[in-house]
Task: structure prediction
Amino acid sequence: MESQNTAYYRYICERIRESAGDRKIVFYGSQASFEAVFKEYQDMKPAFNLTALKEKVSDKVRLIDDINNKSDEYYIVILLSPTDNLRKKMKRLGYRDFKDCMFVERKRVVLGPKDVSYEDGYGNKVVNNCGFEITIASYVFNSQVIIGKGTTCASGAKISVWKGNSKLTIGEGCKLLKGEFLLSLNTEISIGNDVVIMEDYSVTCSRDTKIIVGDHTMMSREIRLRSGDGHAIFDMVTGKRTNNYAPDDPKSVVEIGRHVWLGWGAVVLGGSKIGNCCIIGAYGVFKGTLPDHCVAAGNPAKIIKRDINWSKSNFTENIDDCEPYLNEEE
Result:
């Protein structure tokens, strides 16, 4: 299993191959870990390196000013810190971000509640931000946050994308109060339509895992959804890791059906599948499979009642009012 940085560097190498075309690739600066990955791509080799210091010029090192207005010949891979001054300098030399040069290192991006959309050259994209504070960490690549129409969130709601190749989708007409979504490497969180999540929730998707929440689900305060352990666990006898799952392994997925009610403080752990129209009692800690129309409670949460349905309204007196949720297509 490769590290987050290695996965990011491989993505960057593919982008360089795509963007450079027939141009010669030139390095500006040095970064050992990236260069080690770059060497694996035998069809791409740097023609030479660049420097801003005359005393460092040699057969394989040229001055940065020597490439002035030669973007038709060279594609520059920049291995220095992405300062504003350096970006301005590359622009003056005639090199456009991503099209003519690529900064391998970059800063963390923090979007405010009023930043509705965002897109960068590393494959990251935000669509229809409805008020979240969204953090995209420095090594994040190929990640998306997509929010449906009519969805709202309260002040203090956060989305943190800490690793790459991840996706968060929130459906239409959802209401989310203060809390946080966290995504690691190769992860997916999918929240359905008309979902309500009250204050102080934490939805954490660990590496190579998924969290899926169905339509019309309601979560009370202090809910915790965790698709993984967050730390590596090893068997002392075999030395093998015991909680490292393939992306499609059921143990790596949290799946919550349609019209599910999670009570105050409920915790749902990785490897859980909760059926439609179920209830998890207050402070219940659930891990496993729960059939449709069941109530589970306790720690660990166990089935305490079957053949139930429920309504969001405390004034409902007729079970037929719950029927629309049952008749919807999967």
